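G., the chain you wanted modeled:
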Amino acid sequence: LDADNWYVCYDDKWSRELLPIGLWGMIFYVAGIPALLLGTLYFGHRRHYYLLLDDEDDDINDNNKKNDDRNSSDDNYDAFLFQQRFGVLFCKYKPKYWWWEGIILLRKVAIVAGIIFFTRFVLLQMVFTYVSLLAALILESNIRPYKFTPDNIL
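Predicted structure as tokens:
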């Protein structure tokens, strides 16, 4: 709490009142929301994988259909609803990289964590941010997760 020095960290009041709230908040926001998001994408993508593929992926689509009777209108409607709700998180990536939004979330968390935890060390903030962005750049340039080739060019 650099902005307000009224609170004294590590004393009894801090340990009793503020630490539990802070820990639950960090667990919920830093781990819980991304885990819920990725879990939703995992189970939805797994369930609707062959229905959500584009026309250009017809060879993959044909190989992944287990039964033609599973491709009912209800399944198509469920896949459509899933894509309407969560498609912005995975439609821009190749089907095998549906999870790439999680990598982007990790990159953002790393940058924010570096800025927050190293508030008194500006040089360390810059180095941590630079290393986080460089790691993300190398990973993205090697994997090339986007569907459209121009998006993969850095």
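DSSP finds six helices and no strands in the chain.

Shout if anything looks off.
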